[in-house]
Amino acid sequence: xxxxxVAALIILTVxxxxxxxxxELSNKHVWATSIARNVLYILTIQGLKGVCVVAYxxxxxxxxxxxxxxxxxxxxxxxxxxxxxxxxxLSEQDVLDRSVYLIILASLVTDIPNIVKKKDNKxxxxxxxxxxxxxxxxxxxxxxxSDGAKFFGFLENIRAYEDxxxxxxxxxxxxxxxxxxxxxxxxxxxxxxxxxxxxxxxxACSALSTIQKDVAGVLGRTYKNTAYKIYRRAARPVCVSAExxxxxxxxxxxxxxxxxxxxxxxxxxxxxxxxFLTFLRKxxxxxxxxxxxxxxIYFNDTDxxxxxxxxxxxxxxxxxxxxxxxxxxxx
Length: 331
Prior knowledge:
- This protein folds into two domains: 2-117, no CATH class; 123-330, Stimulator of interferon genes protein (Rossmann fold, 3-Layer(aba) Sandwich), CATH 3.40.50.
- 51% of the residues lie in helices and 14% in strands.
- It has helices at residues 2-19, 28-61, 75-90, 98-110, 112-116, 122-143, 154-165, 246-256, 269-286, 308-319, 323-330, and strands spanning 174-179, 201-207, 211-215, 218-223, 226-232, 235-244, 294-299.
- The chain crosses the membrane at residues 38-56, 77-93.
């Protein structure tokens, strides 16, 4: 394994540098004891720093301890820690010297700025913000506002669809569904509860008018938005334009491919989703062209009791309390 080769190379380098000095084979046990104790000190300091970061995060956000933290622990460091402890005990040596407590305390004090900045979450923030910016500039700005030429905007696209299909959208916004697991199926109807008949269900309809734009060297690149009908028991169906959050769906596939995602092992999915939604919402609200035209929907797809169609209905009811009347008038 790579880390064992690196460790061996470091040890050989130290031995080579010190070989011209006082290193003798007769002192090898002393050397081994000293190395084990210092490795133990370093790992102890690193571990306590990690504990402080997690404790600070829990305090600031009012969160409980996440059991998933155990999965993200560096197993190699844990193995090295207990190996050093076992070696020192078997050698009848003190595991921790009294003076080391002051060193550990001093190290934690000097690292307070990094702990407060939550340095360990830097990759989460950068990745989520990057995806939000890319999704907004690379997709939403092409499907929501008018380009002043061929495409007159999402609102007009919805109205044209209503006229052609004889339906009505009580909320004329693009609903973007972001799931807790990051997963997004090819069609949102896959979230339907096939084993339940007491909940609403989604049905895919035809797509809205195709949008064509020349983007990044691609002539006539096409963009589409899909219309869905939400069927309810003893009530009229409700039309909505909805789709999954493609950047997070891509990240879901990346994380499944372990050969490609080694650098993302420590990525906190829940933090990514939260930061993605927060930052994307800010970008949309600041854009005069896109503000009010897109609705972000968080859906906990890991909860089997939740139904996406009902979640969408709840948001429609929140945005348009009189949506039943709107549908009835169109009829």
